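ok new one. same drill as before - structure tokens go in, u give me an amino acid for every spot. 179 of them this time. try not to just spam alanines like last time pls lmao
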């Protein structure tokens, strides 16, 4: 099962390799059309987007990054997961701050993001996030036939159709999310 966004890697249907997925990701697959998601094993040292794309000839314009943003208002911390193409950046201080309705927004501290998601830093994915979190996607991600995202671990990379990501619980396409 080869997929162009995975470059030179050979992939299998994600349910066939739960060892390449974090536990919350594997659990979330049960409620999805998981046969549409392909996963490939990678060197964990090459999990970061630029290194992954260079090593495996994956097109960087088809890679997506999922980042966790935290904002505070009135003593309450609010989290959101934002997914944008790797060739863009999340507009944390504009779109995210306004939509999250917080005074200050920033990338969540690594320890918090890992503990709250149950996923490895550098492998956080939109699949299997905490149910009460909003999930915001850039139009480029939602409209892609497939993007490469994290698997919740640093040992795998899945290719996921954009429309499947847009159908995840709490997902919303946010036009001005990426810049």
């Amino acid at each position: 099962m080869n997929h162009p966004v995975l470059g030179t890697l050979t992939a299998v249907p994600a349910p066939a390799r739960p060892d390449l997925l974090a536990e919350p990701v594997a659990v979330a697959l049960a409620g999805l059309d998981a046969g549409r998601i392909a996963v490939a094993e990678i060197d964990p040292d090459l999990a970061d987007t630029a290194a992954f794309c260079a090593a495996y000839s994956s097109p960087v314009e088809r890679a997506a990054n999922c980042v966790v943003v935290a904002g505070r208002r009135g003593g309450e911390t609010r989290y959101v997961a934002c997914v944008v193409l790797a060739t863009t950046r999340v507009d944390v201080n504009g779109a995210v701050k306004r939509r999250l309705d917080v005074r200050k927004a920033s990338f969540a501290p690594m320890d918090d993001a890992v503990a709250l998601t149950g996923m490895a830093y550098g492998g956080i994915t939109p699949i299997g996030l905490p149910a009460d979190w909003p999930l915001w996607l850039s139009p480029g991600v939602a409209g892609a036939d497939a993007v490469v995202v994290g698997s919740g671990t640093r040992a795998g990379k899945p290719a996921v159709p954009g429309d499947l990501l847009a159908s995840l619980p709490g997902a919303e396409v946010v036009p001005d999310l990426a810049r």
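Helices lie at 23-29, 49-56, 92-100, 110-117, 139-142, 162-166. and btw The mean pLDDT is 96.
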